[in-house]
Amino acid sequence: MKAIVKVPVCPLLAAPTRESTLEDEALYGMVVEILEAPAPGWYRVRTHYRYEGIVSADDLIVGDEAADAWEALPKKVIRNKNFCDVLSAPKVQGWILAALPRGAVVSPVGQPEKGWQQVRLADGQAGFLPESILSDYHTVPLSQNEAVLRRALVDAAMLYRGTHYRWGGKSPMGIDCSGLVSMAYMLCGILIYRDADIREGFPIHEIPIEAVKPGDLLFFPGHVAMYIGHGRYCHSTGRNGDNGFAVNSLIPSDPDYRADLRENITQVGSYF
User: Fold this and answer.
1) Which residues are tagged catalytic?
2) Most exposed among 121, 154, 206, 250, judged by the fewest C-beta atoms under 10 Å?
3) Mapping DSSP to helix (H, G, I), strand (E, B) and coil, where does residue 122 land?
4) Nearest C-alpha neighbor of 105 from the set 218, 10, 208
5) Cut 0.85: pTM above it
6) What is the DSSP letter of 7?
7) What is the pLDDT of residues 200-253, one digit of tens each?
8) Pick the CATH number of 146-270 from 3.30.470.10, 3.30.499.10, 3.90.1720.10, 2.60.120.260
C-alpha cells in the first residue's frame, strides 16, 4: 500500500516513538510505500529513493487510490525559497493553507497569472503561491549536458546556505551531510543513496581524487561533502563553530582548510 506525506516535514524514525532517533525526513507531497505497521498508529515506510524508516500514521494520507491519483498529476517543486506559504487567494493577504519547505511537491493548476500559480495540495485543497518560488519537478536528470548538470548540482547544494545541522534532517529547518547532497541531487532529478556511502545500485561510482570536478562527492568516515570547484567543497557539519552548512578548502594554505577532513578522505564519488 502507498501513502502521501501530508505534513511539511515528516520524520522517519528508528523506532515507533517520537523520542526515537531521526533517520531521515520525507517532505510534503512525496509518495511512500507502506511496508508494515510495527505498532498502533505507526508505519514502516520506504521512500521513492529507497530509504526506510518509521513514521506516524497522522503524517500520511494512506491508500493506493489517493496515492495513484496524486502521482498522475503534474508536479512542481518548492525550490527558490527556504519556505513558502500556500495561500487561499492570489494575494499576500490570503490566509495560509500550508507552509511548505524547499523540496515539497505540489501540483500546478493551469498557467500562472500575474505572478501567481494556482496549485493543488495532496488533500485536494487548491491554493496559490508565487510562481517564482516553484521549479520543475525532475524525475530524470535535468540536462544531458555534463557541464550544465554539474553547475545545477552545485547551485542546488548552495541553496542550503545558512541551514543549521540536524541529524537526519533534509530541509531548511535543519540538514545533515548526506541530506544536503542527496537533496541537491534530487532537485536535479537524480536519486542517490541517502547516507554517507557509495552503495551498489545507486548511480554514484568511485573515481580518483585527481579527477574530481564540481558536483562530485567527497567521502570521509561517516561524512560526505560536495566538491564545488577551485579546491573547495560544501557540506553540513555538526562541528562547533559551523553547526550546519559550511564551505571549506582542500588547499592547506587557505584559511578555511580542514586537515582533519582532507587527510581522511576515504573515497571520491561521481555520477558522471
Assistant:
1) 177, 223, 235
2) 206
3) coil
4) 10
5) yes
6) S
7) 999 999 999 999 999 999 999 999 999 999 999 999 999 999 999 999 999 999
8) 3.90.1720.10
